[in-house]
Specification:
Blueprint: E1 2-3, H1 12-20, H2 25-39, E2 42-46, H3 49-59, E3 67-71, E4 74-75, H4 76-84, E5 88-92, H5 103-107, E6 112-117, H6 127-136, E7 140-144, E8 165-169, E9 182-186, H7 205-224, H8 230-239, H9 260-271, H10 273-290, H11 298-303, E10 312-315, H12 319-328, E11 331-332, E12 342-343, H13 358-364, E13 367-370, H14 378-395
Parallel strand pairs: 1-11, 3-5, 3-6, 4-12, 6-7, 7-8
Antiparallel strand pairs: 2-9, 8-9, 10-13
Helix pairs in contact: 1-7, 2-9, 3-4, 7-8, 10-14
Length: 397
């Protein structure tokens, strides 16, 4: 059985580490020092990536109601962070050939005070043009590394080494997956003056217990699926709310201290990230070489060697038919990422989105993300590609 998510970034070694990792402050000090050396700025560790985004906007000292540019194909928590910081999101629609906004769309919004770039699915933006715009217009630049930690831009610059801030998420299914966690690296010194005054609460014990058990529970679900028991276990655990949820509550964002055991897991993942990124690139290369080229955006093809390839996107009309076809063959890819311009679709009505991004709406109705994680082999990637082409030949000719 092959899954896109459901703990797919974990192996048995990680399961054991999550259960028994120590909770000392030493681990948080180590991770903080590692991030400061890697990204070149003062760092604060938090419990969620959304906390990092909100804090970056708050520390930037923007005027009340300032406009913040954001990818028009993104997650609800990005909108939430902007809104709760007291600012107004400006949705920048993506390009037809990319999953990122174009510099042309950015340049039409000269009243922006801040810009968040997310390098969607690891695919890097044109950072040189974005950086020039931000410097010329005194716009605060925030690099959101949830999809792209470890990646590089086409000019060779490390993702996270350009902006005023670098925000990281260590949540489920991210490149650095420590079940939960986040960090903010403040790279521009003038924004660090209030950093030590940030009040952070303790993470509720119930949440940390959920997170500790998540790798073990998802490991069991995946192993039991071929026996017909995994689906039942998954249903029961979700019904009882025993599985932690990456989106979690939509309650107001508060700042939390990151417990040491999350820091230990994040550092463990960082130290193995080069090997994992190499694997993701290998799997993405198989999809590129094998799957019908009409399903792949040109920029994904061009940039895959720079990208973190957190997932590999294809674009299919009649997507549900392909999802069912793959499911019948033991491949579960129904967790669409993203299924709306501001995803998940069930939370779109909680935003102020008003149809500003037609390209993003089209893409959200056609995108299907294929797995690239450590638990998928080259043979399995080849099999997935063959199954997709077979379905395409049968259903779209």
């Amino acid at each position: 059985m092959i899954f896109n998510s459901l703990g797919s970034n974990y192996n048995f070694d990680f399961v054991l580490k999550s259960l028994f990792a120590g909770n000392s402050d030493t681990e948080t000090v180590k991770l903080k020092s590692f991030l400061e050396n890697k990204y070149g700025g003062e760092t604060i560790l938090l419990y969620k990536g959304r906390e990092a985004l909100k804090l970056a906007l708050t520390l930037a000292g923007l005027p009340k109601g300032a406009k913040v540019g954001v990818n028009g194909f993104t997650c609800f928590v990005v909108y939430q962070a902007i809104s709760e910081a007291g600012f107004n999101p400006v949705y920048l629609d993506i390009d037809a050939k990319s999953l990122n906004f174009s510099i042309g769309r950015v340049q039409k919004n000269k009243d922006l005070k801040a810009l968040i770039i997310q390098n969607t699915l690891g695919n890097p933006v044109n950072i040189e043009a974005v950086e020039e715009f931000c410097k010329s217009n005194n716009v605060v630049l925030i690099e959101d590394l949830a999809h792209s930690a470890g990646g590089v831009y086409a000019n060779g610059m490390k993702i996270g080494s350009v902006g005023d801030f670098a925000a990281l998420s260590f949540s489920q299914d991210k490149i650095i997956d420590a079940v939960s966690g986040g960090a903010l690296v403040v790279r521009t010194k003038k924004y660090t003056k209030d950093l030590n005054e940030v009040i952070r609460k303790e993470v509720p014990l119930f949440d940390t217990l959920h997170d500790r058990l998540y790798p073990l529970l998802t490991f069991k679900i995946r192993k039991l699926y071929p026996l017909g028991l995994g689906k039942l276990l998954h249903f029961l655990l979700k019904k009882s709310k025993a599985l932690s949820d990456p989106i979690g509550s939509t309650d107001p964002i508060e700042y939390h201290k990151l417990p040491g055991w999350y820091a230990s897991l994040a550092l463990f993942k960082f130290l193995r990230s080069d090997e994992e990124l190499k694997h993701r690139r290998l799997i993405a290369g198989i999809y590129l070489q094998t799957i019908d080229s009409g399903l792949i955006l040109s920029e994904i093809r061009t940039n895959y060697k720079f990208s973190t390839n957190i997932r590999f996107p294809i674009f299919v009309k009649g997507r549900n038919g392909l999802i069912k076809h793959l499911k019948r063959n033991g491949i579960y890819v129904s967790d669409i990422w993203y299924d709306a311009p501001i995803a998940p679709a069930k939370l779109l009505t909680k935003t102020d989105y008003k149809g500003e991004c037609p390209e993003s709406e089209t893409v959200s109705g056609q995108i299907l993300n294929l797995p690239t994680h450590i638990n998928i082999s080259t043979k399995e990637a080849e099999r997935i590609s063959v199954l997709i082409n077979k379905w395409l030949n049968t259903n779209q000719n």
